[in-house]
Hints:
With about 325 residues, this protein is mainly α. The protein has 14 helices and no strands.
Amino acid sequence: MLGYFGRRLLMTIPILIGVSIVIFITIKIIPGDPVASMLGPTGSPEARAALHARLGLDKPVPVQYVSWFWHSLTGDFGTSMTRHTAVAPIVLDALKNTLVLTVAAAVLALVLGLAVGALTGLRRNGIAARIGNALALFSISVPQYSIGLLLIIYLASQAGLFPVAGMHNPNGDGGFGDLFNHLILPAITAALVPAGIIARMFRSAVLDVMSMDFIEALRARGLSRNRVMLHAFHNTVPSLLTVAGLQIGYLLGGVVFVEAVFAWPGIGLLVYQSITQRDLPVIQAGVLVSAFAFVLVNLVVDALHGVIDPRIRA
């Protein structure tokens, strides 16, 4: 098991290096000059040259990449061009807020996806199964920001049941109850797409397992329906882990629309605001941290996959 986990861990190194190269190149090809945006139209050529040198923009691109990547490995993401503070605390605070939203949405997506997938897989010819399939397809197809806006209009603004935006009420105590109340609508909005995908994939896994010969053998031996379902569910866990891991990784980097609609101060909203401000160090750090979190989640999923299914370790 340790050898399997070690191989998976080594595979993440070239992946992270490749991701960092893509991020760095993408930032470089974005139109515009960050120095000009920092100094404004009145900046003198001498001031521009001095700022270029201070930021290291006068060096060759490979040298800039190596310097940036090495400092990133040590946790030094540079200084924000608009906030004039260290980037690392800004990104880490935003990441904590994104993790809160991601965990809540992931739990909700897993519960809904498993329930709908099991219902549509075990009772595939019933009316409830057809409704479940329709809901799963609807949740995948409808844009998240549209659902978020509808929830804000009808449940927050008109009904007043939930807050419109943010994580805490400025006049509240900032406790768990206040956070939970602000979390409900963003979590529901973010969980819709992963829940639909998990439901569809889990339904397919249940149908495949239930059609296998060993299920008929278990029934022939006189096992109860619940025991047969338990064996069937055990054989769907590997595929369920893979899909759930991908969806959790998607939530870490894909909730930018949800965070923007609900003004949730996460890493997606931070990167979005930094793009409009051309704050390149924050953009690079935010995307790199999101990519690292995605790779880490998939590494954990691979390890759990190896624990559950010995064939994977071989």
